[in-house]
């Protein structure tokens, strides 16, 4: 497919601007003009629309294929959320407006969206207060860990380390490190797939600033010892951080705040269904219990007694600003629409169906792929391609073979504690027909791995690019293109 | 927009900003700060704190600019006005008329 520069036609344009309606033409002084025109494409609006439509067809997304990317919750995003986010009264707001004198009276609707979303997240999670500002899950982790660090500094605690399970998302140690702590890894119990509590008791000390947990964890297993973990932490004045990336498994079933969690983040773009392919934008609101509330970022939206809303900065212990303005506001709108449309019963069914779908697929595949932790899963599960690896077929080969069969691959090689990991998260929005088709494809690949391994190693054969050097493609990316210069 | 369209946007920004500056100069008590060439923004000095003027205009449904005292302590009388290609002569006039009215309050 040609790049857009090759489609350029001199003199063509998409938009004709209105005639200048002011008397003084105010020409830009010659000395400030560029020597030659910018090398921009010259296209009609239709040219541009067709170009980008074609590009979009060269991608796969959740609107085109089943996308069981473990730990990413690639559920279908209802289009009504987009309609809400496209209301002009919201997207046409300038973020400075509420910061101007009396400007807040023109942003009451936006404030109410933020306030009500915070209240709903508190109800869903059991936490006392939320900030919506973090702009991604990892940004939420950092915000939470900075609140923890501020708390310990405020109390004069000498804390040096954070304990993190060996199956954790890689962002957990990154966030803890940036917040100033050394990270220590805690082992997973090989029989239960849960954190080894005895090992935790050996590792925890008065120098422990926090324990970071994901529940259900990245093996898709719910840690039923979570309250015990919180009690152990409390004995050492350590905080418990809950990575809410997997919240889609427990809506209406388990509230982290009720289990003694001190701080957590929620990936709105995962659980509450806002499109996050291609890097987002996302939103990683952070919820805290009473102990950490004074440290939340500013600004915060508060509701006055007369029912109006205002931005408040009166939090002297706050960690300060974590994002420009208020975070990704249009993501809040989509998430709020999703929560309100589903309602309490709908959200419960979301999690029940997510868990049911994952267990269904797991049970239909565990005779052909190894299942290292063979117990009921939550919203996702982790298979291992160790049996196929004996024939030279690795998890990556299976992922590539799935592409030829019309499926986005699952997450591979994560969590790190499972060899040849295939981490599968079907989500609640997929039909049984889709799940069955995926199961059939996975079983067929397993069979081919035994009988015709070469055909799996050759995959994908249906894509324009087959097997790029994935490390170089990520780290040494070259997007340059020789543009024909005007003579 | 493309190659020609972006040039048109720039020309309109410049023309409308120049016009807005001239229009602001006609408002009693308002000084257009001459701090070199401008493109689509300019600074005005107001006879009362800019935040207060802005507040009065916001009540009339106009967000006229940013109070610069927020970014430059002690410059509370300065306001930064932005004019884009989307603003019309009528809107610029409306802003100026309302500015004049709130300064007389």
List keywords for this structure.
heterodimer, A: alpha/beta, 7-stranded mixed β-sheet, B: 105 residues, alpha+beta, 4-stranded antiparallel β-sheet, globular
Secondary structure topology:
The complex is a heterodimer of chains A (487) and B (105).
Chain A: H1 45-57, H2 79-85, H3 88-91, H4 108-125, E1 129-131, H5 137-155, E2 161-165, H6 171-178, E3 182-186, H7 197-203, E4 208-214, H8 226-235, E5 239-244, E6 263-266, H9 268-271, E7 286-288, E8 300-303, E9 309-312, H10 329-365, E10 381-384, H11 386-389, H12 395-404, E11 411-412, E12 421-424, H13 432-451, H14 453-457, H15 470-475
Parallel strand pairs in A: 2-3, 2-4, 4-5, 5-6
Antiparallel strand pairs in A: 1-7, 6-7, 8-9, 10-12, 11-12
Helix pairs in contact in A: 2-10, 4-10, 5-6, 10-13
Chain B: H1 2-25, E1 31-32, E2 41-45, H2 50-59, E3 66-67, E4 78-82, H3 89-103
Antiparallel strand pairs in B: 1-2, 2-4, 3-4
Description:
The complex is a heterodimer of chains A (487) and B (105). Helices cover 35% and strands 10% of the residues of chain A. By secondary structure, chain A is α/β, with parallel strands linked by helices. In chain A, the strands form 3 sheets. Chain A has a 7-stranded mixed β-sheet, sandwiched between helices. A 3-stranded antiparallel β-sheet of chain A has the order 10-12-11, with helices on one face. Chain A has a two-stranded antiparallel ribbon with strand order 8-9. The longest helix of chain A is centred in the last third of the chain and has 37 residues, at 329-365. The radius of gyration of chain A is 25 Å and the shape is globular. Chain B has 105 residues and is of the alpha+beta class. Helix content of chain B is 47%, strand content 13%. Chain B is built from 3 helices and 4 strands. Chain B has helices at residues 2-25, 50-59, 89-103; strands at 31-32, 41-45, 66-67, 78-82. In chain B, strands 1-2-4-3 form a 4-stranded antiparallel β-sheet, with helices on one face. In chain B, helix 1 (2-25) runs parallel beside helix 3 (89-103). Chain B starts with a helix and ends with a helix. The mean pLDDT of chain B is 95. The chains are: A alpha/beta (487), B alpha+beta (105). At the A-B interface, loops of A face helix 1, helix 2 and strand 3 of B.
């Amino acid at each position: 497919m040609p790049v857009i520069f090759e489609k350029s036609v001199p003199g063509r344009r998409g938009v004709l601007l209105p005639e200048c309606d002011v008397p003084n033409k105010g020409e830009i002084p010659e000395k400030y003009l560029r020597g030659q025109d910018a090398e921009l494409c010259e296209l009609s609006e239709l040219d541009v629309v067709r170009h980008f439509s074609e590009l979009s067809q060269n991608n796969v997304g959740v609107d085109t294929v089943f996308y069981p990317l473990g730990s990413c919750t690639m559920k279908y995003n209802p289009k009504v959320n987009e309609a809400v986010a496209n209301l002009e009264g919201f997207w046409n707001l300038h973020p400075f407006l509420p910061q101007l004198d009396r400007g807040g009276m023109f942003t009451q609707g936006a404030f109410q969206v933020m306030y009500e979303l915070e209240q709903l997240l508190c109800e869903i999670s059991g936490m006392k207060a939320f900030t919506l500002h973090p702009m991604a899950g990892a940004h939420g982790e950092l915000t939470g860990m900075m609140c923890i660090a501020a708390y310990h500094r405020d109390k004069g605690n000498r804390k040096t380390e954070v304990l993190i399970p060996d199956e954790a998302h890689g962002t957990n140690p990154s966030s803890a490190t940036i917040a100033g702590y050394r990270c220590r890894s805690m082992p997973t119990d090989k029989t239960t797939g849960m954190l080894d509590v005895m090992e935790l008791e050996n590792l925890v000390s008065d120098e422990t600033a926090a324990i970071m947990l994901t529940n259900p964890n990245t093996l898709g297993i719910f840690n039923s010892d979570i309250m015990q973990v919180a009690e152990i932490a409390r004995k050492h004045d350590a905080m418990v951080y809950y990575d809410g990336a997997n919240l889609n498994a427990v809506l209406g079933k388990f509230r982290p705040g009720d289990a003694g969690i001190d701080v957590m983040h929620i990936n709105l773009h995962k659980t509450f269904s806002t499109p996050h392919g291609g890097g987002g934008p996302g939103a990683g609101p952070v919820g805290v219990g009473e102990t950490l509330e004074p440290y939340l970022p500013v600004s915060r939206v508060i509701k006055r007694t007369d029912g109006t809303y205002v931005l408040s900065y009166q939090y002297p212990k706050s960690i300060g600003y974590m994002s420009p303005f208020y975070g990704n506001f249009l993501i809040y709108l989509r998430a709020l629409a999703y929560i309100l449309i589903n309602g309490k019963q709908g959200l419960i069914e979301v999690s029940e169906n997510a868990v049911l779908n994952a267990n269904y697929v797991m049970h239909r595949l565990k005779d052909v792929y190894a299942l290292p932790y063979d117990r009921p899963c939550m919203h996702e599960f982790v298979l291992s391609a160790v049996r196929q690896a004996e024939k030279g077929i690795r998890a990556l080969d299976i992922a590539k073979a799935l592409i030829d069969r019309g499926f986005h691959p699952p997450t591979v090689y994560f969590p790190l504690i499972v060899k040849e990991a295939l981490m599968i998260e079907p989500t609640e929005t997929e039909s049984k027909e889709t799940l069955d088709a995926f199961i059939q494809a996975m079983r067929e690949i397993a069979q081919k791995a035994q009988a015709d391994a070469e055909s799996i190693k050759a995959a994908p054969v249906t894509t324009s690019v087959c097997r790029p050097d994935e490390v170089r493609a990520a780290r040494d990316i070259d997007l340059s293109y020789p543009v024909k210069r005007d003579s | 927009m493309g190659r020609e369209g972006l040039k048109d946007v720039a020309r309109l920004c410049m023309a409308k900003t120049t016009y807005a500056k001239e229009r602001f100069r006609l408002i009693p008590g308002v000084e257009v700060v001459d701090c070199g060439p401008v493109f689509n923004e300019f600074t005005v000095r107001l006879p009362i704190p800019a935040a207060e003027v802005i507040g009065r205009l916001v009540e009339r449904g106009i967000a006229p600019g940013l109070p610069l005292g927020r970014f430059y302590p002690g410059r509370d009388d300065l306001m930064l006005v932005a004019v884009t290609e989307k603003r019309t002569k009528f809107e610029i006039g409306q802003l100026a008329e309302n500015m004049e009215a709130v300064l007389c309050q």
